[in-house]
Specification:
The complex is a heterodimer. Chain A is an all-beta fold. Chain A has no helices and eleven strands. Chain B starts with a strand and ends with a strand. The chains are: A mainly beta, B mainly beta. The interface between A and B is medium-sized, with 30 and 24 residues.
Chain lengths: 113, 112
């Protein structure tokens, strides 16, 4: 099973709202990732958690706040977003080694009004 | 210069054709290479993974890596309309663990 699940599938929020995106994997992977993807562009790395600790933050604005409650779950808390933050947010996981393949979830399509 | 370059297409081929998708990269430290397929409004799906140079075959798909020329290829034999998608190449090095560099993706259309 190489499944990464993400909820919700779609999210519409206003600029003053607070919402969270959720990601889950049960493959025993120890690294989890958040990516942002705009239309017709490749995924852009936002955050990497390795063994439940934040290991990479690609200078993402503080209105995006990641959280890794345990090795299977990854959240992305959203607050005071801008319309330009509208995108497909992808979660991925990998075993945690330096040459590991990353498996992606289906994504959450976020629209900020 | 981007670290991974990929022709965005679109590439249109008739059903049954052999498709060749290519990427070039500039970072000599890249050691592992992947191809992902992404259907419209879906997450990327891993197709092929190759470590260092060489060929790898899986069904109708063959991945090739030539590190001397920094060239990555994906061949699709007997292409089907269901292969219509965007194909993303990605590369990584062992120095920056878990950080992939993606190409921009090539949009492929297989017509009946």
């Amino acid at each position: 099973d190489t499944e990464v699940t993400q909820t919700p599938k779609h999210l519409v929020m206003g600029m003053t709202n607070k919402k969270s995106l959720k990601c889950e994997q049960h493959m025993g992977h120890r690294a989890m990732y958040w990516y942002k993807q705009k239309a017709k562009k490749p995924p852009e790395l936002m955050f990497v958690y390795s063994y439940e600790k934040l290991s990479i933050n690609e200078s993402v604005p503080s209105r995006f706040s990641p959280e890794c409650p345990n090795s299977s779950l990854l959240n992305l808390h959203l607050h005071a977003l801008q319309p330009e933050d509208s995108a497909l947010y992808l979660c991925a996981s990998s075993q945690g080694g330096i040459t590991d393949t990353q498996y992606f979830g289906p994504g959450t399509r976020l629209t900020v009004l | 210069q981007k670290e991974v370059e990929q022709d965005p297409g679109p590439l249109s081929v008739p059903e049954g054709a052999i498709v060749s998708l290519n990427c070039t990269y500039s970072n000599s430290a890249f050691q592992y290479f992947m191809w992902y397929r992404q259907y419209s409004r879906k997450g990327p799906e891993l197709l092929m993974y190759t470590y260092s140079s060489g060929n790898k075959e899986d069904g109708r798909f063959t991945a090739q890596v030539d590190k001397s020329s920094k060239y990555i290829s994906l061949f699709i034999r007997d292409s089907q309309p269901s292969d219509s998608a965007t194909y993303l190449c990605a590369s990584g090095d062992t120095g920056t663990a878990s950080k992939l560099t993606f190409g921009t993706g090539t949009r492929l259309q297989v017509t009946l």
